[in-house]
Amino acid sequence: MRCRPGSTPACAAYLGGSCKASRERAAAAVSARADRLAHGSARTARALGANQLFMLGQMPVTVGADALYYVVRGDYDPHWGVRSTITLVLSE
Question: In the chain, is it the N or the C terminus that has fewer CB atoms within a 10 Å radius of its CB?
Answer without folding.
Answer: C
